[in-house]
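Cross-posting from the modeling subforum.

Setting up a comparison between two proteins and wanted a second pair of eyes on the formatting. Protein 1 (sequence, then structure tokens):
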Amino acid sequence: FGGVTVSDDLQMKAITDRWSCEEAVQQAVLAGIDLLVIGNNLLRDDEAAVRGIRAVEELLSQDRISREHIRASLARIETLRKKIAGETPWSSSQPIT
């Protein structure tokens, strides 16, 4: 599969009962998730996105993940963005119904 992988809500109770925001983000990124969903609706955290970014930066600084891994993820996300915006055609000739 060469497309974008998307997480479920990283703040759902099943996750927050076991891991911190930072740990959940790191586990998801290490598992190959490209887009991380943070619903921010059970317990509002205005710093959730900032904490998530810092968690990824920590993975990079500890050499637990490569910059190439992050670049590849960002490239997949950009390809999806272009498809959604109509800038790039979808590869399938079948219409979505």
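Protein 2 (same layout):
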Amino acid sequence: MTGRGYNPVVYSDSLTAADRSSLVSLCRCWGQSPEVREEHLEAYAILTGMGPTYFWFQWPELERLGREFGLRQSEALQAVAAMLHGALDALFHSGLPAEQVLDLIPVYPLKNDEEAIRHIFRDRLVALYQKLKAATR
């Protein structure tokens, strides 16, 4: 939808360079389509194919809370979008280790829930990864 996806691909050895080039051109509209090793496709499916669904439901909820707190919808949407862009830049482009980025904000209202959330990620995503890997064997 936005041309900013991350869609790893594996090409058959029987494809010609011209065929690969054509496929790369077709995939470009979706965003990045790096060629990866076939044995890693399931990992990419968990991280990038399904990854947005782990977070999407949270962002509209923040926007709704902003409206409940008195912001107009446009203000709440702008605030959440700016926060997300800034948070991603801080985590991935600040040069700081993740642990230091996590300590940048002194108020941490969901701190006590982090371990439960990590447990959900590990339980469900590791099981799904193993199921995908087993299906491809």
